[in-house]
Amino acid sequence: MPLLFWVAALSLFGLLVGSFLNVVAYRVPLDLSIAHPPSACPVCETPIAPRDNIPLVSWLLLRAKCRHCQTPIPFRYPALELTNALVWAGATLLIGPTWALPAFLWFLSVTLVLIAIDLDHHRLPNKIVYPGTIVGLALLAVPTIVHGEFTRFGWSLVAGTLAFALMLLLAILVRGGFGMGDVKLSFVLGIFVGYQVRFPPASMFQALSSTGLSIFLSFLIGGLTGLTLMALRRKKGKDHVAFGPAMILGAWIAAFWGWPIMELYLDL
User: Fold this and answer.
1) What is the pLDDT of residues 183-234, one digit of tens each?
2) Measured between alpha carbons, how far is 17 from 10 in angstroms, rounded to an integer?
3) In 174-193, which positions are buried (b, 16+ CB within 10 angstroms) versus exposed (e)?
């Protein structure tokens, strides 16, 4: 099938998955079941009808308000749905319909919901990080076995382990600067960055240099975000700024473009 068919189909499916991610982002931090009860307005508690639960479309048709109590529906709901569709489309374009694609779609969606939760609650729940890591590893094992790329998978595990060790060391040295959620997250980020799915053949240098780039970008994005928020007077110098989103954005860039960026740097 043409690549554009896969992009379009997975984008639409990504919207549906994005709607579920909203449920996860809202309920998991509150220790609520993601399966029951059905979605309802958090203010008037009226169950949301299927016609009002169409990703992105319903928010536009309802003019961003609950049909029953007129409570505004936050922009973050359609934003999460649309973002998930866009990153799925981007991953499909970059990787193609390969055995590795499901693993990276999973990776993008899990980390996207973690961004939403960390921004709202300054937490990276184990209920998402642990299953996200285990399922991610299982999905990466599929292309590894199918294509016999055991070296690539091995170096990605090394990259994840080193990223975890470095973040753990920083958490110990800079007490209060990083949480254990950031440390645990660094392992799965390092695995997917170190896999360097777009750039065969796999090598130790590719995996580790791209992981180093991911960590550098995390601090760069986090620092620029903090400075911007202080300039806008949204945060003060001692206020906590969620670091998880910066780690994830750095990992996204390095996972798909890490090796070309490192080659450009080495050619300077």
Assistant:
1) 999 999 999 999 999 887 678 889 999 999 999 999 999 989 888 888 877 7
2) 10
3) eeeebbebbbbbbbbbbbbb
> Which amino acid is it at 123?
R
- Judge contact between 191 and 157, C-beta under 8 A: yes
The backbone region for 7, taken as left when phi is positive above 0, alpha when psi lies in -120 to 50, beta otherwise, is: alpha
Give the model's pLDDT for residue 193: 97
Dmax over CA atoms of the chain, in Å, equals 60
Look at the chain and count its residues.
268
Which residues are CB-contacts of 87 (< 8 A; sequence separation ≥ 6)?
Answer: 14, 108, 112, 252
Q: In angstroms, rounded to a whole number, what is the distance separating the alpha carbons of residues 29 and 119?
A: 12
Structure tokens at 5: 């068919």
Among 248, 188, 241, residue whose Cα is nearest residue 215: 248
User: Measuring CA to CA, how many Å separate 24 from each of 20, 21, 165?
Assistant: 6, 5, 29
